[in-house]
Every structure is written in C-alpha cells, then in structure tokens.
Amino acid sequence: MYKRRRKSYWFIILTSIFLIGVIAYFAYISPMQESIYDRSNRLFSGEKYFFYNSQLILRDPEIKDNIYKQECFHMRDGRMYYEEEGVETWFGIDVSGYQEWIRWSRVAQDGVQFAFIRIGNRGYGEGYIYKDSKFEYNYSEARKNGIPVGLYFFSQAINDEEAIEEADYVLNQLGGRPLDLPIVFDWEFVSYDARTGNITPEALSSACNAFCDRIESAGYASMVYTNLYCAYSKYDFSKIDGRYIWFAQYDDYPTFRYYFDVYQYSSTGYVHGIEGNVDLNIMFVDPKSFLTRTGTS
Predict the structure, then answer these.
(1) How far apart are CA 122 and CA 159, in angstroms?
(2) CA–CA separation, 224 vs 182, rounded Å?
(3) Domains of the chain from N-terminus onward
(4) Which of 141, 240, 275, 288 could disulfide-pair with 104, CB 3.0 to 4.6 Å?
(5) Has this prediction a pTM greater than 0.90?
C-alpha cells in the first residue's frame, strides 16, 4: 500500500514538471524563437520585434520602415548597385583630409555623381573643434568638376549647446556659399572612455535636432549619419524620424529596419583620382532635388 502511494506521488510530480515545461515553452521560448530565427535582421512584414546584437528590440510601428529589397542589392567590380524597376540611384563618395590631395577631374570621370566632404570635427577627448585640413580644396575642386557637394561634421556633442556650437561653426566656415546636398550631423560612438561615452538617447537625439534645426534655419538642408549600433542603442530614433538619414553598414545589403536615403556600404572602396581607400555610397534621392533647399537653384 505504501509503495503504490509513493509511485503515484512520483507520477504526479513528473507529470507536473512536464506540464510546467510545456507551458513555459509556449509562453516564453516559442515566441522568442519567432524572432531568434531572424539573426540576419531581415525585415518581416508585421513583426513586432527584431534581433540586434543578441538583443530583442521592439520595433517602433510609428517609424517608417526600410522599403528596400535585399535581393535588389548587387556588387559588381567593387561597387554596389540597387536594381529594382522604377527605382533610380546615384553613386557617390565621402572624403576628408585623410584622402590627402584628390584629383577631382579623375573622380568625376570615374562616374562619381555626388560627394560629401568633411568640413570639421570635434575631438572626442578634450572637445575642441577643428577645421578639416582639405575642406577648402575639396569643396572648390569638387564643384569645379561638376560634382554635387554636401558637407558633414564629425560631432561629439554631449548636449544641445555643443550641437548648436558645431552648427554655427559649420555655417561660419561655409560663409553662405552654395551647396547641392545637405549638411550632415555625423555623431559616432567612440568608446565609453570618451567624453561622449555615457550620453543618453534623449540627450543625443535632442542634440541632433538642435544641430539640424540650426542648419535649416540658415537655408540649408540637414541630414543625420548613423549606423546600426547608434541607431538602435544611442539614439531614440523616433525623435529624429522624418529627417534625411545616411545609414552605414558594410555588408552585402543593409539590414536596418527603418527608412534611409543614403547607404554607405564600404570604407575600402577605390575611385580613380584618390590614393588609398574611400567610402562608397548609394543615394536613393535625386541629388538635384535638394537644390531648392540649399539656395543654389
């Protein structure tokens, strides 16, 4: 009689453990697997979550989605092309003093259709602002050779005041000269030891908007440069949604979940007239469409 009861107790205990396991699977593990399988960051219609850097992220339904098709991105001879019926793209580069002396006539002959030129940067240690050593040369020579030009400033702003200071610096250096493309707020994460290491998404998003608003108040278009890490972890992307976005990811195709206008796909590209590596980009917006926003039409 005692042994039979003990067997019954063990049966009840094992059955209970099994049922708890089944409930846990359907309540927790199974929903996780629905997103875990998506480690390539592919976009699935209607999904609520996506995976990035081993973290499950809630997709913001209010932000415009990435509309580009992965199968339409192709690499040929070191350059990326997007081939979808009805979609036109433009090939471009971004440069700074690191490229030294660029022969812009050869760059134009090699099919470059736009260029973003660094005008300056803020140091990530002491926070001083510097002018790019080749800005004046690159600006004048690119325009002389008929290449539409935009600018970018490498920001390390930690608040609105510093972002506005950076925007004013850009405007002062530009001195009212015409541009074809936007002025870009290029804030990038350096390290947690940098002065910007612990900035909050709220502070960074606010600084970004402060920079862009000041640029636009001067009659120029603005744009925001970002990558996967900054977009998902450093910005509150809902606060900058609606601005022109320049997105960087060095891969076979962009896996960013939200919409962007320019895609930087390589930092090791080659263009005639430039010694060494150069960043390569695809623009999904006609460069001429910015003209009325920058006062050069």
Answers:
(1) 13
(2) 9
(3) 2-52 (no CATH), 64-294 (3.20.20.80)
(4) 141
(5) no
